[in-house]
Amino acid sequence: MSEHARRRCAQVAALVALALAAACGKEAPPQMPPADVLVMAAETQEVPVYHEWVGTMTGFINANIKPQVKGYLLTKDYLEGSVVQTNQLLFQIDPREFQAQLDQSVGNLQEAQAALVKTQLDVARYTPLAKEGAVSQQELDNAIQANQANQAAVAAGKAAVEQARLNLSWTKILSPIAGVSGIAIAQIGDLVDTATTLTTVSTLDPIKVVFPVSEQEYLKYSKARISDPQEPRKGALELINADGTVYEYRGTISVIGREVDVRTGTLTLEALFSNPNNLLRPGGYAKVRAAIDTLPDAIVVPQRAVQDIQGSYQLTVLGADDTIEQRDVSVGPRTRSDWVITSGLKAGERVVVEGFQKTRPGMKVAAKPYVQPTSAATPWPTAATPPPLPIVTPPVG
User: How do strand 179-181 and strand 251-261 relate by DSSP bridges?
Assistant: First the structure.
């Protein structure tokens, strides 16, 4: 071995010795503290079982505003989208043609009335003369016939005047109901007739929700109506808005459809919900919900604690020594922010609600209590004790 190689080996050996000496003097790295998780004990509650149906909102009364005469639209006399009252002026059709027809009808009536006066005088004059033989019976008969014809002409003239007066009044298009007006379809200057839709006015308080139910659900409901004279229960329905919020007023079934749709096997139901501020509008999305059963002593946990893994459900459960356990569970209905656990969990066991993503089975953790949000902690309503929300009663008639 050359002198250079020997020196190189000596340097490497010295570096290795220094590294070993430094390693021997180094302390072991500190252990990581336990992960923080938020836990909550599983509770037992009486949980209502809800069923939901998707429907559509529509006005309690929807009036399609159409003219009853043909003519040019002169004015639009309402604010689109505003609340209008019964007999409020909405549109005006050019009345000049109909005013002329009325004037002509009045003239024809006056002419017929004048002719009737003459024939009445003829009959009154000819009657005693015919008895004395001063005029023939034929002349009297002709006068009587002419008088009757003029009476009919006067009656026809009065009807023509009334029709002309109606046509003139119909040039002012009034709202037949009180409600919320729609956007005008026809514009000023359009030639409109009886087939033209000008706008729509809808009565929105109460508002109607139309939704289909299956034939099986209908039969179950019908049996309940027979056995319970309180059916349909007032305020039994809740409405879920399109943004997921629960509508503040509860509704009542008002109409059950006549027949089952053979294509879908469903029956159409209608429900009424109070709508004092016209918040709900026709055509809107409506999810109707009703409590159809009650689960006594059901074990519930927050929905956010349940892990859905390819159709299987798991909970992260905390043992007595604060160690993590992954447990398969079976779930039941969901309501508000909680989920019913039907098997795999006992009441009182601690469930990890937040932080389970950073845990693994057997790991020790630092458990802290999970605080349920105020809105989610509100007790569930039961079928026997509905929430204290306003109830709308279907109008009579």
Answer: unpaired
